[in-house]
Backbone:
């Protein structure tokens, strides 16, 4: 058998010659080549006009924003940071604090443990249904079983069961801030455990033996998490001096007592918030309730639920929250049309057409979801909006949005980003708002039996 490559394989030589001749005949191409072979291509594509138009002034803003700006470092914990950044705002105001952070590492610790247990239960369930590693479902669940990211209802599960801690009582660790190695180790254990559990089910092993095996697996995960993050205190005391220069303290509390007695009953009840999404794919109707198969982090916990609405509904709900002094957790595709140094999320901030003669934004939002071009990748917080006032409050139109990020204070406006309203339309996928802010018609959607999307659906992406 001949091993040589046929002369007519691949792109025809005649076509390559034409491409080359056309490319080198363009002085614009040569200039772009000179620039892009020596610089970051995003810097070359950056629109000076868009950068000059940046103005971090907003006519609607929440009364006070949390301090200090937070930094998730090299981890995928944005969803946790965004939630705790929202929760601390009314907490700081009520308890008169100048600066404060809840422990992000504490929720990260419990999410890894609870999610490992949830995934192991999912493996057992799949095996009982006859799913194998050759099928798409288990293959999907094995890709990144203990991802750092998450969704809002997962946060509700964690906080309602385990409570929260001040960061001073359970500070960051190296593996919390640099989670890549930890995630690799945990994924290794989960994949091996999947193999073992599937083999047990396939052999017809009794339920008690399967559960005993799972218990031993969970002990491994628990041991790893305590080694790399430390062991959270069962009770804690937190002392501080308030803005009136008076000594204050929370004494001898469990994290769950702290949440229930000093947060939930006083300033912020996380369970009262729901997720409204914009999924414009034709097959997924608006005014329907959706969930995603095997998307969760707590066995027997609250399901991840999405109320699907047009994008203008998400905008009006966000404006209503901000006008009533409530910051808004949201999920988006942060990597698209983003100039990070300036903290600018703007469809016009990167001009690929000028440099490459291509337009990366030709696809519609639903087409990007369908063809893998976009999905939720990051969670942040809306704290302000610039508007054009309409005839009544419901007619208020947004022009730009103020965004609190969790990447430190070096970029943007001391860590805050500016998002144009057009960018919101194309790349924001979900907002979390109080259930009471929804119209009665939308609230009734929560009574529906949710449509179950497959585990690999893009709406199952973790922010």
Residues:
């Amino acid at each position: 058998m001949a091993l040589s490559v046929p002369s007519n394989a691949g792109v025809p030589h005649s076509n390559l010659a034409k491409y080359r001749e056309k490319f080198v005949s363009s002085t614009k191409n040569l200039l772009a080549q000179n620039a892009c072979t020596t610089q970051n291509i995003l810097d070359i594509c950056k629109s000076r006009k868009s950068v000059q138009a940046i103005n971090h002034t907003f006519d609607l803003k929440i009364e006070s924003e949390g301090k200090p700006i937070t930094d998730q470092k090299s981890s995928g914990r944005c969803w946790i940071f965004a939630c705790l950044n929202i929760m601390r705002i009314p907490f700081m105001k009520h308890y008169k604090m100048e600066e404060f952070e809840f422990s992000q590492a504490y929720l990260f610790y419990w999410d890894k443990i609870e999610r490992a247990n949830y995934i192991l239960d999912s493996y057992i369930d799949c095996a009982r249904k006859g799913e194998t590693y050759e099928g798409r479902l288990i293959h999907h669940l094995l890709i990144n079983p203990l991802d750092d990211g998450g969704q809002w209802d997962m946060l509700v599960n964690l906080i309602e069961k385990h409570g929260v801690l001040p960061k001073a009582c359970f500070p960051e660790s190296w593996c919390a801030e640099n989670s890549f190695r930890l995630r690799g180790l945990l994924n290794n254990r989960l994949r091996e455990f999947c193999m073992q559990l599937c083999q047990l089910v396939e052999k017809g092993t009794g339920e008690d033996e399967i559960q005993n095996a799972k218990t031993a697996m969970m002990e491994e995960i628990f041991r790893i998490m305590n080694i790399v993050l430390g062991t959270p205190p069962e009770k804690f005391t937190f002392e501080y001096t308030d803005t009136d220069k008076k000594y204050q303290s929370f004494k001898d509390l469990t994290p769950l007592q702290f949440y229930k007695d000093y947060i939930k009953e006083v300033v912020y009840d996380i369970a009262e918030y729901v997720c409204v999404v914009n999924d414009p794919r034709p097959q997924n109707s608006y005014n329907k309730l959706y969930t995603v198969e095997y998307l969760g982090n707590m066995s027997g916990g609250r399901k991840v639920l999405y109320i699907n609405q047009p994008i203008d509904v998400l905008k009006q709900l966000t404006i209503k929250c901000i006008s009533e002094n409530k910051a808004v957790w949201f999920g988006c595709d942060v990597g698209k049309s983003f100039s990070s140094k300036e903290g600018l999320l703007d469809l016009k901030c990167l001009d690929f057409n000028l440099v490459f003669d291509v337009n990366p934004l030709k696809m519609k939002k639903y087409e990007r979801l369908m063809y893998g071009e976009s999905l939720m990748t990051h969670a942040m917080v809306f704290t302000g909006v610039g508007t054009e006032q309409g005839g009544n409050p419901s007619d208020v139109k947004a022009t730009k949005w103020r965004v609190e990020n969790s990447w430190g204070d070096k970029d943007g406006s001391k860590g805050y980003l500016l998002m144009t309203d057009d960018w919101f339309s194309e790349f924001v996928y979900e907002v979390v708002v109080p259930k009471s802010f929804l119209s009665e018609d939308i609230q009734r959607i929560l009574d529906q039996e949710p449509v179950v999307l497959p585990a690999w659906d893009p709406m199952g992406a973790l922010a």
Remarks:
- The longest helix spans residues 104-128.
